[in-house]
Amino acid sequence: TYRSTKFPVRDDAGDVIGIAGVSTDITDVEAERAALEDAEMRLRTLVEASPVAIAVTDEAGGIIYANPATVQLCAVPSIDDLHGRSALELVAPGQQDGLASTLAAFAAGEADSASGRSVLQRGDGIALHVEYTVNRIKYAGQNAFQVQVRDVTDAIADHLRNRDQEHELETARKRYEAALMSRFGTKQAAEAPVWA
After folding, report:
1. Residues 123-128: contacts with CB under 8 Å, at least 24 apart
2. Run of H or E residues at 153
């Protein structure tokens, strides 16, 4: 592929006496541009299809991009309902200090990456426990933050159920030991197998 530029050639009186031109082979430039566009499209597809909520905020925490998983996680009708809102508005009351201090540390240049847990207040009023990771990035030539958010509400509930079950099991074991002690009178006898 060639890019040609043509221009008139004039004599001393300013009359056109010919045409001159320069042609430049831009085959490599076009191939690089096509490869870059293809890479950007693949990356955009990955982010848009990601099950992880991914958003980009400006340095003040205003949302400037959100993928479909973010819209779904926040239970809002569309990206327009998030665009321009402060990320802090999505954090449940009483939970905003952690994210606010993270954003302040980023704005002061004290951090480039951080992660933590918080409670997200969805558009439908439901509160979700979430884990987030924040990274400093350049977005459209400006300093920005990429925020990834994962719902861990079910994992926390499972952990609490397991902890409760372990507590119940330990309580049952202690009752069993107490019953054996009461029946056999000594700890050694209680530790012997019942079938012995």
Report:
1. 123/74, 123/75, 123/76, 123/77, 123/81, 124/75, 126/75, 127/92, 128/73, 128/153
2. helix 153-184
Q: Tell me the pLDDT tens digit for each residue of 125-139.
A: 999 999 999 999 999
| Per-residue pLDDT at 179 exceeds 90 | no
Q: Model's pTM, two decimal places?
A: 0.65
Please give the pLDDT value at position 193: 59
The identity of residue 139, as a single letter, is Y
> Residue type for 125, please?
G
Q: What is the CA radius of gyration of the chain?
A: 32
Of 134, 123, 131, 147, the residue nearest 71 (C-alpha): 123
d(CA 81, CA 122): 12
What is the SS3 assignment for 61-126? CEEEEECHHHHHHHCCCCHHHCCCCEHHHHECCCCHHHHHHHHHHHHCCCCCEEEEEEEEECCCCC
**Single-letter amino acid, residue 58:** D
Q: What single-letter DSSP state applies at residue 51?
A: S
Q: What are the pLDDT digits (tens) for 78-135?
A: 989 999 999 888 988 888 887 778 777 877 778 788 888 889 999 999 999 999 999 9
